[in-house]
Amino acid sequence: MSAASVERPHYERSRDERPLIAEANLLMDRNPGYRVEIIGDQLLVTPPPDGPHAVVLTDLMLPFATAGLHGADSKVVQGIGLWLPTDTEDYAIPDLALVDADFHDHLVENNSYDPVCFRLVLEVTSSNWKTDLKTKVAAYAEAKVPVYVVVDRKHQRLHVLTDPVESEYATHRFHSPGQQVTLPDSIGAKVTLDVAEVLRAGQARTSD
């Protein structure tokens, strides 16, 4: 179920009035593979992910696709921006998102889309894990994204956050290896995740 569309009176400003977005795009051009976001009027730069990070994202896409969520009504996507209501140039780029199939119609700017078309966002933690567990919790809640999932490789657990209220989620559940997690029906189909399998896929390999 989609959230209400976000009002943004700043949205029609010209590009030459957006110095942070210009700087973000310059940083991405100069640093291929890096993710650059603007949250709370601050630039956040994330290095390219490691291999297990990419593997766990691919593994997570499969149950969504099997449940029919990558089809006529919705799409499972990586690397698209979510325009945020938190400041005049704010946007985030979740690792994975479940969006309405007509998300193309909700483009705001800078490859970022209105949160009205996002059913779920998902992050896999890396060295910047505090951003996913704190900064982005507030940002996605402000954007009224219904479901936020975090694969917490730092603490070896899966977070499922629902019921956004202002800058927080009213419901925040932690799940440990050995548990099965069924995501909320609001995403459009039944998706159950095995926490141990998800976390195992994201574990970094060490050499002998």
Describe the structure.
The chain starts with 18 loop residues before the first helix and ends in a 7-residue tail after the last helix. The protein contains four helices and 14 strands. Helix content is 24%, strand content 31%. The strands form four sheets. A six-stranded mixed β-sheet has the order 3-6-9-10-11-12. It has a four-stranded mixed β-sheet with strand order 5-4-8-7, with no helix packed on it. A two-stranded antiparallel ribbon has the order 1-2.
In brief:
24% of the residues lie in helices and 31% in strands. The chain is built from four helices and 14 strands. The chain starts with 18 loop residues before the first helix and ends in a 7-residue tail after the last helix.
Keywords:
4-stranded mixed beta sheet; alpha+beta; 6-stranded mixed beta sheet; 14 strands; about 210 residues
Strand order of the largest sheet: 3-6-9-10-11-12
Portion in strands? 25-35%
Q: Give the topology string: H per helix, E per strand.
A: HEEHEEEEEEEHEEEEEH
Largest sheet: 6 strands, mixed
Low-confidence stretches: 1-15
Count the DSSP helices. 4
**Rg over C-alpha atoms, rounded to the nearest angstrom:** 17 Å
Distance between the termini: 47 Å
| Shape designation | globular
Helix proportion range: 10-25%
User: How confident overall, as mean pLDDT?
Assistant: 90
Number of strands: 14
Query: Helices and strands: which structural class?
Result: alpha+beta
